[in-house]
Amino acid sequence: MENRIIGMRSPLHTFDFTSPKQILFGAGRVKELPEIALLNGMDRCLVVTGHSPQRVAGVVEHLHESGIEIRLFSVLGEPAVEIVRQGVLYAADGGCNSVVAIGGGSALDAGKAIAALMRNDGDVLDYLEVIGKGKELAQPSAPWIAVPTTAGTGAEVTRNAVLFSSKERVKVSLRSPWMLPVTALVDPELTLDLPRSQTLASGMDALTQLIEPYVCSCANPLTDGFCLQGLPLVARSLRRVCADGHNIEARCDMSLASLLSGLALANAGLGVVHGFAGPLGGMLNAPHGAICAALLPHGMQANLAHLRREQHSTPNSSDIIERYHIVAQLLTGRNNAEPEEGIRFVQDLATELGVLPLSSFGMGPEQVDEVVEKAQRASSMKRNPVKLSVEELRGVYLGAL
Ligand SMILES: [Zn+2]
């Protein structure tokens, strides 16, 4: 591929970048967990797991054998506001000074929110955006370590916890730079026994989280680097992990892609697909990644069509179209691929791997007004590269049905 510099949008462009203090990546590295915990003074841990705690029983046992006092807390469903309250009380009752969260996005986000509320007074709603008071955290979170067992959310390196409110039926974020873990420990071996459906959903989430930050309005040269590294990994390995979950090479690719996607989205933002996925996640019972997967080609299509229309009137449009070009080239592996071919690649991948439309989760055209109205208010929508009209947003949702 030609060497093109399109990272900086203007010579005056400034940016921030934050990440956990430490990121450890590699097959088999979960055995280092007790040592890292103790190095950080984490000798009384609330261990937050997902709905299949048996998948990580060996890791928990290893923590226990190392002399760390642990209290187990399983998050069975969505990381709901009530679950966070229960976790905080349970941690206080056990005298816990820290959190180890081992699991998928739900367990990591629950652990992240619990660690924040262990050190900050008041109720979780005081700090929640959109439906709560949106107060800033006054204190850093209790030290916590993130150990993902899926490859997709990147929640191990993001500074927000997506929580579900059963009252409003919506998913919203608790957000603060103080919510980053002391260590993100990413061991692809922990994903080897992940069922195919979760492998696919989380993998499509990673893909979405590598495309949206790359084209979004706050992309920066560091996040660009992560996206450019991550996209080819998904292109070469998502099919492979879906065909054979025990392919460790492909699992390593997807774990790395997920980690890179988390670093990108945490520092650049997302776009229209996540703008819809937030409210839809509260309205229907489907994994976040499955929702993103259904929406992704339609979100890309709407953005690209809008950009093509504006190309001659808005100076920035050509730069973003060029970014869609590069996405297409990295996904297809062909230097001459047009932006539309990137969309086709995503569509074909979704069809081939059996991504379900939103209608299979019970959504229909009659909800279009409600969904679009909620999506417009979602925080992810603010970073979409273009401001899509209500008509364009309706098209994205209806296309994904
Ligand atoms: Zn996502």
Structural features, described:
The chain is α/β, with parallel strands linked by helices. It is 50% helix and 11% strand. The strands form two sheets. It has a six-stranded parallel β-sheet with strand order 1-8-5-4-2-3, with helices on both faces. A hairpin with a 4-residue loop joins strand 6 and strand 7. Helix 6 (196-215) packs antiparallel against helix 7 (221-243). The longest helix has 23 residues, at 221-243. It is globular, with a radius of gyration of 20 Å. The protein starts with 21 loop residues before the first strand and ends with a helix. Residues 205, 208-209, 274, 288, 292 line the site of zinc ion.
Spell the H/E element sequence: EHEHEHEHHEEEEHHHHHHHHH
What is the mean pLDDT?
94
What is the straight-line distance between the termini? 36 Å
Distinct small molecules: zinc ion
The outline comes out as globular
Q: Largest beta sheet: what is the strand line-up? A: 1-8-5-4-2-3
**What percent of residues are in strands?**
5-15%
Low-confidence stretches: none
Query: Could you tell me the radius of gyration in angstroms?
Result: 20 Å
DSSP summary: helix tally: 14
Largest pleated sheet: 6 strands, parallel
Structural class, by secondary structure, is alpha/beta
Overall helicity: 40-55%
Number of strands: 8
